Each structure stands twice: as structure tokens, then as C-alpha cells.
């Protein structure tokens, strides 16, 4: 089993496509170059079971990826992989640019305002138009924080902390 610190989720298998074993994938980055260059990926099932698969094909369709794996030739074989995360080894990915982060590095960060108000922990991230949205939770309270420069003031991965300057009314929602 590969250390989960080394594996970076880059997408999730959301459905089968056709009857010949293709899988429909939601990409977390929209960047297919890393997938195409690596040749093989590690799948992590909902139960945490890891398996390595060699890529046969990658195409885009309707904003999603269609991926084929060698040895996976029919819908019945493909169906059991739905729900699995597609992961790459950290060393298979390019280093993020300045002020860019892999989602897996942001999940779990404590979030506070620049005034020192603790908002909670980033528990999820999703895409919404031109920016990502960080789902920050503290108990029953949930804040949706847009990942834009006017709001995100600093990210300190080493200390597990993000400081934000929320737009007016954002925390009242």
C-alpha cells in the first residue's frame, strides 16, 4: 500500500461510459497533462483499497474525462470502480505555482479571519465557476469561502492555517 501522504487525488470516477469499460471522471484540476504523462494511476476505492491501473486512453467529453484502463474491456468490470478516486504520486505531478495548492494540502487547514475570529476547518473543496469554494466547518456552522485573492490572505501549510478577509456579509450567510 502506498503512503496516503504520497498519493494526490486528481479525480473521481463518477460513472461508466458505454459498454466497453470506459469510465467517466470528474477531474479535480482540469489538467489532463499529468495523467497522460504518467502512464499508470493508483485507484483508491471508497473502502480505502488501493490498486494500480495502466492507462489505455484519455479523452474529454462534456467537461468530464473519459478514461480507459488496459485490461478493462466491459461495463461489468468498470462498474466496480465507480466511486474510486484517481490518485497520482506526488512526484508525478508538477510543483504548484506560487500561491497555488493541491486540494489535499488544504483540506484540514484551520481557517481564521485576519481579525482572529476562528471559522473552523476546511473539510471540502468544490469548483464553482471561476474559483474554487472552500467548505469550512465548525460544529454545525458552515461557511463557504471563495478562493479568490481578495478573500484568501495567507496560507501556511507548515502550521496548518489559513487567514481570510471575508467579503462583507459572507459570514452572515
What features would you describe in this structure?
The chain is mainly beta. It has two domains: 7-92, RimM (Elongation Factor Tu (Ef-tu), domain 3); 103-172, PRC-barrel domain (SH3 type barrels, Roll). The protein is 9% helix and 48% strand. It has three helices and twelve strands. The protein has helices at residues 33-38, 75-79, 103-106, and strands spanning 7-17, 22-27, 40-44, 50-61, 64-69, 85-89, 110-113, 118-128, 131-138, 141-146, 152-156, 161-164. A six-stranded antiparallel beta barrel has the order 1-2-5-4-3-6. Strands 10-9-8-7-12-11 form a six-stranded mixed sheet, with no helix packed on it.
Estimated helix fraction = under 10%
Biggest sheet, in brief? 6 strands, antiparallel, barrel
Briefly note the structural class of the backbone.
mainly beta
Uncertain segments of ≥5 residues (pLDDT<50)? none
Give the overall average pLDDT.
89
Count of separate DSSP helical elements: 3
CATH class of the largest domain: Mainly Beta
* Total number of domains: 2
The CATH architecture assignment of the largest domain turns out to be: Beta Barrel
Radius of gyration: 18 Å
Number of strands: 12
Characterize the quaternary organization of these chains. single chain
**Cα distance spanning the termini:** 42 Å
Report the CATH topology name of the largest domain: Elongation Factor Tu (Ef-tu), domain 3
Order of neighbouring strands in the sheet with most strands = 1-2-5-4-3-6
Shape: elongated
Question: Strand-residue fraction?
Answer: over 45%
CATH superfamily name of the largest domain? RimM
Order of helices and strands: EEHEEEHEHEEEEEE
